[in-house]
From TrEMBL:
Species for this entry: Oceanobacillus chungangensis
Protein name, UniProt field: Cytochrome c oxidase subunit 2
Domain Cytochrome c residues, every copy: 249-339
Gene Ontology, cellular component aspect: plasma membrane
Domain of life: Bacteria
PROSITE patterns: COX2 (PS00078), COX2_CUA (PS50857), COX2_TM (PS50999), CYTC (PS51007), PROKAR_LIPOPROTEIN (PS51257)
Taxonomic lineage from the root: Bacteria, Bacillati, Bacillota, Bacilli, Bacillales
Transmembrane regions listed in the UniProt entry: 46-69, 90-115
Membrane topology annotation: Multi-pass membrane protein
Residue ranges annotated for the Cytochrome oxidase subunit II copper A binding domain, each copy included: 124-236
Amino acid sequence: MNGWMGKIRAVLMLSILSLVLAACGKENLTALDPKGYGADTSMDMIILTTLIMVVVFLVVIIVYSIVLVRFRRKKGQENYIPKQVEGNHTLEMVWTAIPIVLVLIMGVPAVMTVFDLADESEASDSINIEVTGNQYWWHFNYAGEEVVTSQDLYIPTGEKVYLNMQSSDVIHSFWVPSISGKMDVNPENVNTMYIEAYEEGVYWGKCAELCGPSHSLMDFKVIAVSPEEFDQWIADMQSVDPADEPQDAVAQEGKELFEANNCMGCHAIGSSPSAVGPNLTNFGDRTKIAGFLEPTEENLVDWIMDPESIKPGNKMTGKYPNLSEDEASSIAAYLMQLKPSEVTPESVGGIN
Ligand code: CUA
């Protein structure tokens, strides 16, 4: 009795646990709820292969159960030897043919999908973006547009956007689970892929290759906006003049400190393609600070004062003089007011 109770309890616990864990996922961070072309075709393959595996599993279990019950040794059959079927031609043919057919059913669409997702024939007429992976952030340079940004990648919905990807240091992997598959980002060569989002929204991106102590914090976002909003965003980004003076006095002081402390040695504001540190042109519109902190001035001050404690192994640590909290606050005020566009992550619903 006790043994059974224990088993029932274990099954109950497991069910509750899987229910709780199932709620852990974030919206727009799952390959199982596709919102873009690459994720969609991958989902079709997941469904196809899972269906085939389930059918094979059921057939094997059913045949096994029938044999177990029907062909048990019965009383009086102790010395009975059943008919021997070793080398049976028909059986050999059948159980060789079935797996081949199943592999073909999975393999042909898989190969077609691979070629489809690697098709670059429309790239020259489309938006092309240079993507550079860095420990631990992402650089995006819109080819021919003189628009550079980092961490939040803006794309128009319903269009294939071609990414030409390379790393400045170690191997990273670009992955936006709900709209595309993964692509490794290497230092030696350019890898290409395209992404397409069906609907407006903010999609979570992850680095999917262990790349150092802050690998798990190398998050980014894809901001999918309507094609009209995208054109607007590009125009707004192009019109930024890094020399523009902030209205607010504290922000003005922050701008001076930003220049005096050599922040601009690494961080460009405007269209400079330099990728030493993240481009900050639209920093005030970012979904996160340092890729994963809530975008508050307080978090930004903490980050500027001591980045190493927040993101170990980052390359900003030690590159500038120590700042007082007041100085860091002024710089934070300057950066937070860099909001060149009405088109923002908030305008497409924000992060879920
Ligand atoms: Cu970059 Cu992990």
